[in-house]
Amino acid sequence: MGALPPVADLDRRFYAQVVDQLLGAAVLAIAALGASFLDSWVWRLAVMLGATVAVVTAYAVALGTTGRTPGKAALGLGALGEQDAAPIGVGHALLRTVVVALAGVPTFGFGMATLAMTAVADPEGRRRGWHDRLAGTVVYDIRPEPAAPESLDPPRPPPMVNLTAARLVPATESHTPAGPPPPAPVVPDRTALRASRPQQRWRLTLDSGESVVVEGLALLGRSPAARPGEQVRHLLPLESRDMSISKTHAAIDLVDGGLVVTDRGSTNGSVLVRQGVSRDLADGRPTTLLHGDRVRLGDRELSVAREA
Question: CATH top-level class for 197-307?
């Protein structure tokens, strides 16, 4: 069995559930509008019950066969088997869907809050709520793996070969000239050359005036936390007035003496500003930073400076 996908963060799960709730509410609202034209309250009730059963069944079939509801598909999540990350089947998915549905409107949202609390308090650290344990699921982040670091520098043109000059070079003699062989070329010590070069430091300056010299992996967000096995040098918590910053919003790291920034699946995304031109950062894809760049994380901003 291959490695399991990473466990989804609670922020993305919350927004996926909001999408599913809104879609379900829209279907029921249309059903209620149609039922309002019926004279008998019995038929009105039957229409509403039928619409509710149809929504729950559709969600259960989608979840059981693919692991994804519309909300989870939009957010790149999948509720899959805890052992093999495979679809759980319609039966288990129906149980999970009914529990989530009953925890919503019928309990005025208190049931949803309870399920969220059980996910936060999961002793295994896999954020499994009571509904996940009943159905044997784990909500995974099943977005594609990040690609290699992407540089914003313009591509260099391929080298040009001067064929005319090459034809004018006289041919060398095929025989080996007499006398002792020429001395071997001196190969410079690359380690010594690197040591002789001046060391460069990278400094991040927040819009609040705080600054830090990057000495390793730095995580930024409302309450940044390392993934299992990550060696983190800096944890930089950022306050957000409008809650537009995710818990672990972005990462900045040193790579071969340079600096790269990676959006860590934030809800509102990250933006790189270079020479006045803004560009959204691809989720999970490292992007090279240059001196003078600025990075926007929600309602906060930081600047990048290279120091000799």
Answer: mainly beta
